[in-house]
Amino acid sequence: MNTVTIVLLVILVVLIAAIVALYFLGKRLQKKQEEGEAAIEATKTTIPLLIIDKKVMKIKDAGLPAEITSQIPKWRQRIKVMVVKAKVGGYQMPASQKMSRMTGGPTAKVQSQIVTLICDRKEVFDSIPLKKEVKATIGGGIHIIDIKGVHGNTTVKPEAKKKTKFQQFKENIQKKAGAKPL
After folding, report:
1. Distances, alpha carbon 136 to alpha carbons 11, 94, 139, in Å
2. Where are the domains of the chain?
C-alpha cells in the first residue's frame, strides 16, 4: 500500500471515531438539559421584582451565590450570561389587615433582598425595563423564564441610531448588488 493511502485511512478512522464520540456526548448532554429544564419548570413561581440593573457578564463576575458557582465547571465560568439584579420583597400586608391599613394601623414588613438572577433567552432580557417593577416568572431559584406584567410604561423601544451618509451609501450599494448588509 501507498503511504498516502495509509495516512488517509488513519485520518478517516480518527474522524469517524470523533464523530461517534460527539454523537453520544451530545445525546448525554441533551438528556441533562431536558432534566434541568424539567426541574426549572417544576419550581417556577411568579413574583414581583424591582429591576435595578441588567448586564451581560461572565458567570464568575456576576455575584451569584457560592453554591451555584461551585457547581459550574471551570471551563464554563468564562462564558458570558445575561444577569439581572433585582430587589425582591418590601412592604406587604396580609389580607386581614387591609382595613387596619386604611385606618392607619400597622402593616407587616417583609425583608427585601437584592438578588442576582440569570436570564436565558435574549428576547426576555431585552424586554426587562430598568428601574421598573415587573412580575416575573422565576424557575430554579435564579432563572428568569418570562415577564408577566410591567408597571408603568410597557413599551420599551431602543433608540434607533441615525445612520451616517457613508452607511446609507454603503447600504444602497449592497441592496443594488443583492448582498446582505453587515
Report:
1. 52, 21, 10
2. 1-42, 44-177
